Structures are given as structure tokens and as C-alpha cells.
Amino acid sequence: MVDLYPLAAPLLRALKPEFAHSLTIWALKSGLGARAAPPDPPSLTLSVLGRTFANPIGMAAGFDKSAQVADAILAMGFGFAEVGTVTPKPQAGNPKPRLFRLSQDHALINRLGFNNDGLEVVAGRLDARRGRSGIVGVNIGANRDSADRVADYVMGFERFAGLADYVTINVSSPNTPGLRALQDKSALDDLVERLMAARPEPESARRTPLLLKIAPDLDDQALDDIAEIVLARHIDGVIISNTTIGRRDRLRSRHGHEQGGLSGTPLFQMSTQILRRFHQITEGRVLLIGVGGIGSGADAYEKIRSGASLVQLYSALTYQGPGLIKRIKQDLAACLARDGFSHVAEAVGTGVER
Ligand SMILES: Cc1cc2nc3c(=O)[nH]c(=O)nc-3n(C[C@H](O)[C@H](O)[C@H](O)COP(=O)(O)O)c2cc1C
């Protein structure tokens, strides 16, 4: 099929960003994005989380919040797709406008606030694609008005265990007031204890991996505390990172002052630094997914050398279109070959001093 993106790009950029996003989801649902992606370079295959990934490049949470187009995302050439954030009850999110393009900074600011169709609808969609190939994780959260946020996560985990290839607990969105307090030591430990107790068949080979997604705005003490809990409670992986509430000082775009989480290029260095530090303090014993500002194969490679086994992206896709995925994979394979690595797993953490 022909690549429609170069034709559609100027139109999408002329539209309000949230409308452009809805149109993109509609196009993907209608089959307009489907293309037979060429096979991935063999050096990009890796086995982690009990699954084999054809390549380590994933779609980050927030693009397909309600699991409407997971298979279309995979068909674009991603090695895996993370859908969500999903909350137990459907939720409209914050008032519009709530998504801003910062074109001069290659960045976005969003304060969407977990708009999604809710747990039952999303579970139905995942159930309908059961048996299809392709790795799909679900990112779960709590409703804004929930009286018991921990119970919301437990509900999500119980519902999606077995339906998803992994479940991520998102305690790092800046757009639900108070949510990030769940990253504090005792709150996080309680949450993870409750989730682990709820995990069906904890010893079975098919148990669903549980991942944690953290903010980039954490100090060293907070990272040490989180690392301790991750190791003690055997969390299967950590996604580093969500959007930042800081980093506004050097932005050039007129929307730079908007409230919400900042993603894209200005997030790259700070999220990579946190990734590197987390890899260091956990001595490479925890699976890490690096996300934040990836826009090229060299960026993906830097995340991998900083400790990430897998990576994800979102913002760069809105600026560069789906052709980016193929370029990242080709350039990443070239970086690995140049440095003498025959498989991506060999490069993980090689840029981190121990
Ligand atoms: C519009 C938008 C919505 C997002 N929604 C979510 C979300 O629902 N849950 C989540 O965990 N992360 C969400 N994120 C954060 C991304 O998953 C990712 O962590 C962040 O954007 C950094 O990656 P990037 O710089 O490649 O965009 C969202 C990001 C954007 C831009």
C-alpha cells in the first residue's frame, strides 16, 4: 500500500493536535495505516519478559488509550504496543484544550487526564484480538474521583492479567492530582504488595509480568527507595520515564508555559540520566524500558547503552510520521554492527559505569 503520511502530514499539522490525533486513530481503525512491514534485522530480536520481541521499539502509552488500534500499531513495524492508561470507570479527562504542539522544541505538552473508555470496554477489545500475534501491554491507572486508588490498580491488574502480555502501573502521570504520591516509599510498597497478592497463579509460567512506570522528576533518594521496592517485591520491569513537569525554562514555543506533562526532545537527556542511574543502582538486575525524547536510531541506541532492554516513543511520531519506525530500526542495527554487537541484548547498559 502507498504511504499516505507525506500527503496527510501538512493537513494533520494544520489541525488542532487532539483532533489530528482522533483522525489518526480513525484512519488506523479504517485500515489506512496497514502496510506489510519488511522483516526486522535479526540483530534486533530479543527475549525478555517471557516473550520474544522482533525488535525493541515500542509504542508508548497514551497514543492508543482505549486499545482501538493495537494491531495497526504493530503493523506499522513496532515490536510491541502499550495501550492505556485505562481506568476502571470510563473517564472524559480534563477540559479542552489539553494537548499542545511545541513545534520549535519538537515537544508536546499534555494534560489529558486519563481520558479512556474504561476497563470493561478495553478488556473486551483485547479479548477480541486474543490469539493474534504481536506483543500488547496494558497501562493501568486510577479514576480521578476514586475513593480507593489502590483498589483501582488491583482491579485493573486482575482484569488484564492473562489478556495482556504485561501490565504497567502508571503512578507517574502529572495530570491526575495526587497520583504521583503513589511513588512515595510506603505508598508504593503498599500498592505493590496488594498487586502481588492479587496476581493470579503467582508461580505459573504464564503469569503476567508487572511493570512500574516512573516520573523523570525524582531525586536520588526517591530513586533509591523505588529501586529497593522493585528488587524486594520482584517487579518485572520499570519504564523510565513518563512526561516531566519541569524543564520549561529553555522552551521556545509559545505553548511552553502550558500546564501538563512535557514530552519529546527536551525530555531526552533527563529521562536518560534517570534510566542510567536506575540501571546503576540496581546493578543491571531489573529489566528497564527507556522512553523520553527518542527521535532517531542513535537516540534509541543511547537509551539501550544506558540500560534499557526495550524502548518506547510517542512524541517524535507526531513530528516525523510512521516512516520513523523503519529508520530507527535500520539505524539502530547499523549502530550495533558498527560497535561489534551481534544482538541488541549485548549492548544493554554498556554505556553505564558500574
Ligand atoms: C499526548 C500524550 C498522552 C500520554 N498519555 C499517557 C498515558 O495515558 N499513560 C502513560 O503512562 N503515559 C502517557 N504519556 C507519556 C508517554 O507514554 C511517554 O512516557 C512520554 O511521552 C515520553 O515519551 P516521548 O518523549 O517519546 O513522547 C502520554 C504522552 C503524550 C504525548
Walk me through this protein's architecture:
The protein has 354 residues and is an alpha/beta fold. The protein is 36% helix and 16% strand. The protein has one domain (40-347): Aldolase class I (TIM Barrel). The protein is built from twelve helices and 13 strands. Strands 3-4-7-8-9-10-12-13 form an eight-stranded parallel barrel, surrounded by four helices. Strand 5 and strand 6 form a beta hairpin. Helix 5 packs parallel to helix 6 (185-198), helix 6 (185-198) runs parallel beside helix 7 and helix 9 (297-305) crosses helix 11. The model has no long low-confidence stretch (mean pLDDT 92). Flavin mononucleotide is lined by residues 60-62, 65, 84-85, 99, 108, 110, 112, 139, 170, 173, 213, 242-243, 263-264, 267, 291-294, 313-316.
